[in-house]
Each structure stands twice: as structure tokens, then as C-alpha cells.
Amino acid sequence: MADEPDDDVQAVLDAEDRRYAAMVAGDLTALEQLFVPALCYTHSSGVRDTREEYLAKLRSGYYVYRRIEHPVERAAVAGDGAIVVGRMTADVDVDGVPKTIDNLALAVWTRAGGTWQLLAYAPTRLPG
């Protein structure tokens, strides 16, 4: 049954997988569906974007993701909210400059209209 916690956790993890796959594929339609309008997307540089700002940067080619890996350490659901804690490593071009990113990551998801959508994302540099 979809209301069971294990099913909710799996649904969030599936949404997280779809998000990263869409980022690498440049699939803006999928990302638009996965992001709530009030999205707060923080980058490893410390820059924060709204949903529209982030999508515009992707559309313009400012961010081009070449590879992303996102091992999950923990995922938890509480009501219509969820967190995914893990790591995000990526090869990405930022304004034409190739970079390799290796961060801890926290994704906050919310259930809206029966589907899970990303509400906030925050990377953190690795300690030491």
C-alpha cells in the first residue's frame, strides 16, 4: 500500500534518482515537475537559486552536469515531508569551466498532490 512508510521512503528515493538523472540529461521538463514552485536550491558555491533561477541557468547552459553520483546514507519520511541525507559527487561545467564537486548533501522533499517534489537542496563541503 502506498501509504506505508517503506513505500514512501522508496518513492522519495525514486524521485531523487529521477532528479539526478534529469540533471545529467538536461531534462528541464522532468525537473520542472520535480521542483515545487517555492524551491530553494543551494549550490556548493553558496549561491542560492529559486526554482526559476535554477531552471534558467540550466536552460542557458550555465550549469551542464556531465556525471552525478549520489549515494544515500539515510532517508526519512514524516507526514508529507521527507529528507534524503547523503553525498553528491559530480563533474559539472559552471559557466563553461569544468569542475568536480564532492559534497555532503541534504535534500528536503514534500508531498504535493500525491507526488514527491523537491522543496530544498543544500550541499556542505566535506570536513577537513
TrEMBL record:
- One matching Pfam family, short form? DUF4440
Where in this chain does the record put each DUF4440 domain? 13-118
User: Which InterPro entries does this chain map to?
Assistant: DUF4440, NTF2-like_dom_sf
Q: What is this protein called?
A: Nuclear transport factor 2 family protein
Naturally occurring in which organism (per UniProt): Geodermatophilus sabuli
The beginning of the lineage is: Bacteria, Bacillati, Actinomycetota, Actinomycetes, Geodermatophilales
